[in-house]
Here is the input.
Amino acid sequence: MFDLDGVVVDTAKYHFIAWKALAEELGFEFTLEDNERLKGVSRMQSLEILLEIGGLQFSESEKMAMAEKKNTLYVSYIEKMTPEETLPGVEKFLQELRTKGIRIALGSASKNAPMILDRIQLTGLFDVIVDGNSISEAKPNPEVFLKGAEKLGVSPEECVVFEDAIAGIEAARNGNMHCVGIGDPEILGLADLVIPGFDGFTVEKLMKELKILPKSKKLGECPELKEKENRPRS
Ligand code: BG6
Ligand code: MG
Here is the structure.
């Protein structure tokens, strides 16, 4: 199961431009460091964080209008995205999963996920898409991934989630799924495995590193997985 922003594409730079423009309009500065706090966070929660940084308060209707305005600017960038913006190795890895008969779901907080997948021409590689339009609980709640597993018709324990945000890794763990962090091991230490990106990554490496069992084996028969299962959840 794949997160989208930061895993399949780098949209954080477009979110940054759009949030920064809103902050400037409101009279305060929004930095790249601040932007890190918005990764994996829903649109309205991102706005709350932004307003907290600016020390400002607004009514619900004003906040809705601001989020709408930010999204309009953000969409003006993502609608120009091209397949070249897919992160290195992602398409190859997705193709390999398909060739091996492994089903693929998207589990993203973004309401713009269908448009982004369409622009980078990867929609067809996903068997199931669960995005910000079909969930009510934000990560670290596991809802998005549990829905994905249900739609795929597999149990959570059989799923591997690929995530770049701490909240997403927590969501995977809260949902009892394996999790691969994409990024810095110092930050994503909660994941079962952390890789810098998909370039050179293969299904064989994944199976080996995560010690995933052939489907016929039961969880209890593998000490490593049993130990993983017993780790405290956050
Ligand atoms: C997540 C991003 O995938 O989607 C967040 O990491 C973003 O930064 C969230 O706020 C919601 O996205 P959108 O496209 O619905 O505003
Ligand atoms: Mg992400």
